[in-house]
Amino acid sequence: MGRRTDFRSNWAVIFIIAGVFTLFMGCGALEQATVKKVEVTPLVETTEGPVLGTEEPATGTIVWKGIPYARPPIKDLRWRPPQAPEKRVSLLKADTFCPLCPQYVDHDRNPATPQVIMGNEDCLYLNIWAPKGTNGNLPVFFWIHGGGNSIQWPPLSVLSGAHLASRGKMVVVTFNYRLGPMGFLNHPALKNGNPENDSGNFALLDQIAALKWIKANISRFGGDPNNITIAGESAGGQNVLKLITSPLARGLFQKAISQSGVVRIARAEEGTNYVNGLLIKMLVKDGKAKDEKTADEVLKAMPLKEVESYLRTKSAQDFLEWHPEGKAGGMIRFPQCFADGYVLPKDFYGAIEKGSYSKVPIILGTNKEEAKIFLRAEPPFAAWRQDNSLLTDRAKMELYELVAKYQSAGWKVMAVDYLARAFRNHRDQPAIYAYEFLWGAGGEKNNVIPPPLNIILGACHAMEIDFVFGTEKASLGALVFNEKNRPGRTALSQAMMSYWANFVQTGDPNRSGDNLPKWLPWSNDANGPKTILFDATLDKAMISMSTQELTEGMIEEALKKEPRYQEIKPFWDNSRYRMRK
Question: Which residues have C-beta within 8 Å of that of residue 329, sequence separation ≥ 6?
């Protein structure tokens, strides 16, 4: 990464004294040892060598950026399980975020501007924020970013963990993991008999490797390796749920938070078909076949070793460029998270229903109008938005609101209600806490988001991220936050940060003295508490408990009673936000 300086003289004495004990202890010994309180400073000795962070006086935190948690997954290590990083004797100046993993980037969110492919395969690095002056033993918040497992959203370079670390008195970790076809690729040509490698789930293995690195090193940054909460939004929330069911992640975390995590699992044959489709296009482009029909015959005649060699000659861009259409904010659709029976169970939902998963306290949540951020870019709504008829034609606006309502309800069933009930069916499952985020919901009736975004976005997917992190412009706050809505949204953000911090500390979002409404755990009883509702007016937070639970059957019954049922039904039938076990 080009940020190392020579390790000399005065530093040597400090590091030798600080590091002798560490160098002779294995990671297993660290896990069993009593966590000792240490005064955290920018200079930290890790298992690989010394790192030097920087202070952020405005937030009272120290940050270390771009620490390697695995070797670069390049050349022979591409599509292989992550390997431990190399030891260093030189000082790593941890003051710069690492490059993005290869992905499409939409610079200005303008549909007329072509999305470009950026990034570097050498991208397995993490970032740590800790409150300055801490004596250690702080809970750890391990954030898994979203973006459909194909882009980094929000960019970690703008999603500061400083506010959450400072306010919540916790250590906050963010990190990169392999994305798109570099992160998930399952094909017979890449298999070598190693079950981790053969799974195709390299991005999930990266996340497990990052957790293992944190487990071994976080005490030196002030964190408690025995009090780690995995958390994530969108694909990050999905990955949290998959780590809960992964046998390889057992014991690496003690709590979990899934924000808008909708689980989809791929089969190995889907991976094979996807890769073969890419190979056929590449063979034609490279002049090895005159057309795709001929390329298919050429591919079938190629030995697997030759296929592997051919795949490894290609750049990350070569794989991404075959997804020119259908990208939402840069995200591509491709098979991911393979039910291999080793990294992930062969039956994800079956594992939960049987109780074969890591039983830890969990927060599950969604936003009231999740689907809008995607629906706005789909036909016919994209065209209506471009010609402005979505906002001027009442019938079109109503259809948009109705389709968003039912698709978002389906998302809630998948990401919260079904899972909460399934988890709570096990007597040894700790408390489950559920939320629904409503700030900005209601279309024209909503006055906290200025028009036209109150209709187009509302309480959509990713809207809650800035509230959780206490940031202004890391996520969609950049589009909808203003001075008029500042008092109410700030009050709501502070409440949510308190709930999250309490949960990360103890597994219970409530703490006496916070003067916040009590967040009751989910109950499977018919009239028992279910979900806390997070909302705010222009001036104050509005938080309350709900006993409402949704099922897909309830959604379909309500849909049949809609006067515009026939118009809404095709969108529901083709929705990606439905339970399909």
Answer: 106, 109, 151, 153
Q: What residue type is assigned to position 479 of the chain?
A: L
pLDDT of residue 37: 64
Residues 530 and 522: beta-carbon distance below 8 Å:
yes
The amino acid sitting at 113 is T
**What CATH architecture does domain 4-259 belong to?**
3-Layer(aba) Sandwich (3.40)
Residue 25 has pLDDT above 50, yes or no: no
Q: What is the mean pLDDT of residues 394-404?
A: 98
The model's pLDDT over 268-302, given as tens digits with 9 standing for 90+, comes to 999 999 999 999 999 999 999 999 999 999 999 99
| CA angle (74, 80, 82) in 5-degree steps | 80
pTM of the model: 0.92
- Give φ, ψ of 280 to 5 degrees: -60, -45
474 by DSSP, 3-state: which? coil
Q: What is the pLDDT of residues 151-183, one digit of tens each?
A: 999 999 999 999 999 999 999 999 999 999 999
CB of 519 within 8 A of CB of 532? yes
Cα–Cα distance for residue pair 251/359, rounded to 1 Å = 10
- Which residue type sits at 350? G
pLDDT tens across 405-423, in order? Answer: 999 999 999 999 999 999 9
CB atoms within 10 A of CB 17: 10
Give me the residue spans of the domains in the chain.
Answer: 4-259, 361-573
**Hey, is 541 helix, strand or coil?**
strand
